[in-house]
Amino acid sequence: MASDGRILIVPWDNDNFVRYRGEVIDGSGSSYEVTSIYDNSSRNGLVIGSITHDTWKSGIDYRGSHGKLEALTVYLAYNEHCIRSESR
């Protein structure tokens, strides 16, 4: 990954309170259904997520620093009891 590594954060619900956002990879967090890890300069990257989700959602947890990904975990049937308390 280039020095301007970013990750797309997709909120649990698309309810106009929490927006999609591209973040510098520096810390940890979660994205739901899909994410993209990309170089902001070239826009080259990787898209990871589910294609269909009739019953369960997928979740993606990440950790990294200085624009570089250190860990990535993708979950099926993702559920988190405090999802609605995401920072808005």
Sheet/helix structural class: mainly beta
Low-confidence stretches: 81-88
Strand order of the largest sheet: 2-1-4-5
**First and last CA, distance:** 29 Å
Query: How many separate domains make up the residues?
Result: 1
Strand content: over 45%
Level of helix content?
under 10%
Main sheet record? 4 strands, antiparallel
Radius of gyration: 13 Å
Which whole number gives the mean pLDDT? 82
Taken from the alpha-carbon principal axes, the silhouette is: globular
Tally of extended strands? Answer: 7
What's the number of helices? 0
Give me the strand/helix succession: EEEEEEE
Written overview of the protein:
The protein is mainly β and 88 residues long. The chain has one domain (5-83). It is built from no helices and 7 strands. The strands form 2 sheets. The chain has a 4-stranded antiparallel beta sheet, with no helix packed on it. A 3-stranded antiparallel beta sheet has the order 3-6-7, with no helix packed on it. Strand 4 and strand 5 (45-49) form a beta hairpin. Residues 81-88 have low confidence and may be disordered.
